[in-house]
Amino acid sequence: MSLPIGRSNMRFRFVILAVVVLISCWSRPSESKSMAEVFGRVDGSVAVIVTAHKISSGSTGIQQTMGFGVGSGVLVSESGHVITSAHLVNTADEIQVKLSGSEAVNARVVASATFADVSLLQLESVPKQAVVAKLGDSEKVRVGDEVFVVGTPYGLSHTLTAGHISGRHKLDRVSAAFDLGELFQTDAAINEGNSGGPLFNMAGEVIGIARYIITRSGGSEGLGFAVTSNTARRLLLEQTSFWFGFDGIVLQDEMAAAFNLPQSTGFLVQQVADNSPAARLGLRPGMVKAQIGLNEMFLGGDVILEVVGIQIADGCYDKIQNRLSQMKQDDIITVKVLRAGRIVHLSANRGR
Q1: Which of 47, 209, 253, 338 could pair with 303 as two cysteines, CB 3.0-4.6 Å apart?
Q2: CATH code, domain with 151
Q3: Cβ–Cβ contacts within 10 Å for residue 199, how many?
């Protein structure tokens, strides 16, 4: 016996509705990827970075020992580019990078934006099974978005910590001389060893590079910060910020007067990496450890006053980087320093 047309339509609609509900239930987990699934897909791009560098010891600084650092990074190109924190690698004499499931390989710094604390490494060789992470658009990130950090806290490699974007801020100006970029604030735990590690969104895109944490106790319950992916992309991949291979301390106002600087701002050199442009220039690092107020520093090093004819002053960082980016490898870099009370002019070719 055939059913009336109306009842057939009702049964047909019921079947279609049931199928739609089942498909919806089945597809929901795949549409909103679990964190475990996303982590499994991107973890192969996360690097463990080990560095070695010389450090002065004792109050005289005559003795030097080797110091070692451990941090994180992320592979962002098939050619072997790894983004990490500048403070981890900027003055390192040796750098080794280990991706999951592969042997450690040597790496060198090819670009560094010291005052935004991001650097770009070039691997000596790229493991065949390496996973390349995608840099996302940090402008699209919203406060409240779910994120996670993967890195090497306290030497525990490929550790995941999860949280949300808590805020976004313009980077504080370290001094009037340097304009830095933008930071994400996150409640995802960031600890020692996480520096340079990627901050992922739930699409598996890198939206930030872990930088530091503000904490009263030294633990991870403080406020975590990451340099936004757009800032890192602009400074390292689009502008390819020049790597000098030294770090130091900005001297301004009372500190500039205490060091008898002939100008209002200078840069006291603390460390110099072997085989770096700074080493070729002959820049001298500080050797005598001292405490001035709340600042611990090494004294006795050069104080940089000018780079390629541009005085260390307000807005100089971008100007210097723009000038260096226009120079060829054989062009000469000039630096004016205050050394033991005397003005000294240094020069060397730009190099690669």
Answers
A1: 338
A2: 2.40.10.10
A3: 33
Residue 281 near residue 302 (C-beta atoms within 8 A): no
**Residue tagged active-site, from 45, 81, 87, 229:** 87
End residue of a domain, out of 173, 208, 238:
238
Write down the pTM of the prediction: 0.82
Is 195 annotated in the active site? yes
Which pLDDT tens digit goes with each residue over 226-266?
999 999 999 999 988 999 999 999 999 899 999 999 999 99
Q: List C-alpha distances in Å: 344 to 6, 286, 341.
A: 97, 16, 9
Domain edge (last residue) among 194, 216, 238: 238
Q: Provide the number of structural domains found in the chain.
A: 3
Q: Please state the φ and ψ torsions of residue 39, each to the nearest 5 degrees.
A: -60, -45
Which are the contacts of 232, defined by CB distance < 8 A and separation ≥ 6?
Answer: 83, 116, 118, 135, 208, 209
Residue 108: which domain range? 41-123
Q: Of 151, 99, 150, 91, whose CA–CA distance to 124 is shortest?
A: 99
Report d(CA 150, CA 156) in Å as an integer: 10
Phi, psi of 134 (to 5 degrees): -100, 130
Q: How many whole angstroms separate alpha carbon 178 and alpha carbon 270? A: 18
What phi and psi values does residue 74 have, to the nearest 5 degrees?
-145, 135
Angle at 55 between CA 352 and CA 183, to 5 degrees: 65
- Catalytic residue, chosen from 45, 195, 241, 276, is 195
What token pair was written down for 73? 């990074």
- Render pLDDT for 298-347 as a digit per residue (tens, 0 to 9): 999 999 999 999 999 977 888 998 899 889 989 999 999 999 999 999 99
Q: State the catalytic residue, choosing from 53, 56, 81, 117.
A: 117
d(CA 304, CA 336): 6
